[in-house]
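Researcher: Let's try something more involved. This one mixes different molecule types, so please make sure each is placed in the same coordinate frame as the others.
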Amino acid sequence: MNGLKKIFKSVSCPALFPTPYSLFPGCLDTVRSVAAETFRESVKNRFFTIFAVFAACAIYASLLVGVMAVDEEARVLSDLGLGLMELMTLAYALFHAAMAIPREVETKTIYLVFSRPVSRPAYLLGKASGLYLLSAFMLSVMAAIHLSLMALRGFPPGLVYFHILACIWLKVIIITSLALFISLFSTSPVSTMVISGIIWTLGHFTPEARFLVEKTAGFSGRLLKGAAWLIPDLQLYNLRDAPLAAAPGVWFQFAYAALWALGSYGAAVLLFKKKEF
Amino acid sequence: MKKCFYAAAAAVFTGLLFFSSSGRPASAFPPPSALREVRHSALEDMLALSLGARRLFADLWFIRLMQYYGTQEQIAGVEEKEDAEHGHCHHGMGFGTGKYPEFTALSRHIAALDPYFKNAILYSAGSLAFNMDRPDEATDLLNYALVNTPREWKFLIMLTAIGYSKSSEPGKVAQIIAPLVRERDCPVMLKQLAAFLNKKAGNYAAAAEIYTDMIETSRDPFYTRKAEEELRKMKGLRR
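Model: All components are placed in one shared frame. Result:
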């Protein structure tokens, strides 16, 4: 990061070659600081230890199930581990996304933050980045445990394993961004988590919902079609479930996740700007 | 000015969402209505669909199917014995044959949850057709799986083998399923069947090769013990 700064500072004419640093030097520093703080707070939290221990135990349990599956051990071991990883990361990231801003408001930390020259969009972006980083870190730790268990049993994973991990992360990014936005208008963190959970569920039903919508004619059909667009299609990222051949391209997956993350961020900025602290 | 910017941003977002919807593939799975309840599975099925965990739940149902099929049936009036004449008992110790009334429903449930779970479908179809003498149910199961995986050659080979099994030509059936058996992840039950059919047709070398492969690759002690036993018997025959 510092290296990049030096590079950008060394450019003699920033007006001719605008870079993120030359355009918003203060903003990016704020984003980085808030993201680092969000990440640090989440890692310090006792919940993280609980989740880590639970993940280790759950993956160990998957070994037992693997033994029961005899010749399908590799498949069961991989599926159970990946499924648990996804649920753990989702639960932890959702919990923190739902609590991130309400907790700061409750403890009045946010007043201290905004008494300094900190822009609200930069603060929100920092919070979101911290949460993305947290989920990536959590996934990496659990994947390391899972991979070592699989290696111990003599099942080295293929490259597709890492594609699946990336897809899980993208799914969590989408839902975390939405949860952060929802937390700004919901009445409590619990309701944020419930609403996000419902979106998560609906997101996995999107292909079926689209199929049903296509069968519905008239005004209600058009209305349902519009509503179906407003639910993120999480099945696009469900590589641990669907065959690889049925998945869209990697760039499409990244672009779609970026679209949802940016859309949620934009809506959150709009709401956050109207809030009075 | 600001309002215009927000409106434009919202329009761009909606447009991109609309554009992205055209590039999305259709569902790779059978519709939820294809799932029929077995053993009060409604809640589990709901979880499988809503958490996007069809594959994981199909694994669990396959474990249940193996446990069910691995348990000796206790039906009054039904005496289980090895069908040595037809060679339909893959275990050769009194189970494997039998009625197992829930077997088809459980297999179908797995196929509805995850039609790409090839080994489970091959295992179920093989057991139904060759061990329990229910080739019609096996054919139905394979045809059902082929709706989602029309190019799956393993299912097509199995269908052909089931067709030939009616003609009482064990050598021909063994020849048909040979490509399946050569696959690294072929269900061990099919390997056992192929070895048995080869032995019955007098192709001892081929049978011995399959038994050796079973010992080297399978993690199921039951089948590996059985393969060792068969190899010993065949060595005795050669002497």
